[in-house]
């Protein structure tokens, strides 16, 4: 499964909509208008699992392109390899940022008085 830039942005905005109050901006300059209709835990877990799987696929694709380029495959260009590596890098960085925000939110909830 390939993650496009628009679909990744939409997923991040919808996740941001769950965390932030609706009056705040999403960080991209526009108010959040998308709302998540189904917020059950299994669906979130499945979405997270798919996102991590997609990042893994992007990394594997970038690795295979780099290997094919190193082996002298004439069908693989240097620009394709660099673009694939950058896509994998951006996707991994976005995943790490989501993970950091989830951990931060968990710590904040756990420190709340009961």
UniProtKB/TrEMBL annotation:
The gene is fliE
| Domain of life where this protein originates | Bacteria
Q: Which family does it belong to?
A: Belongs to the FliE family.
Provide an example Pfam family for this protein: FliE
Q: Where is this region: Disordered?
A: 20-39
**Which locations, inside or outside the cell, does it occupy?**
Bacterial flagellum basal body
The protein's name: Flagellar hook-basal body complex protein FliE
**Biological process terms in GO annotation:** bacterial-type flagellum-dependent cell motility
UniProt KW keywords: Bacterial flagellum, Cell projection, Cilium, Flagellum
Q: Which GO CC terms are listed, alphabetically? A: bacterial-type flagellum basal body
GO MF annotation terms: cytoskeletal motor activity; structural molecule activity
Quote the biased-composition stretches of kind Polar residues, using this chain's numbering. 23-39
| Keyword Lipid biosynthesis in record | no
Transmembrane regions listed in the UniProt entry:
none
InterPro entries annotated for this entry?
Answer: FliE
- Per the record's keyword annotation, is Transmembrane included, yes or no? no
């Amino acid at each position: 499964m390939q993650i496009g830039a628009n679909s990744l942005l939409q997923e991040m905005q919808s996740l941001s909509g769950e965390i932030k109050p609706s009056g705040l901006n999403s960080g991209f300059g526009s108010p959040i208008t998308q709302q998540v209709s189904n917020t059950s835990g299994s669906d979130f877990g499945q979405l997270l699992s798919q996102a991590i799987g997609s990042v893994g696929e992007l990394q594997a694709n970038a690795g295979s392109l780099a290997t094919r380029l190193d082996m002298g495959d004439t069908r693989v260009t240097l620009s394709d390899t660099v673009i694939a590596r950058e896509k994998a890098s951006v996707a991994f960085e976005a995943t790490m940022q989501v993970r950091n925000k989830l951990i931060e939110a968990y710590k904040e909830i756990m420190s709340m008085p009961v």
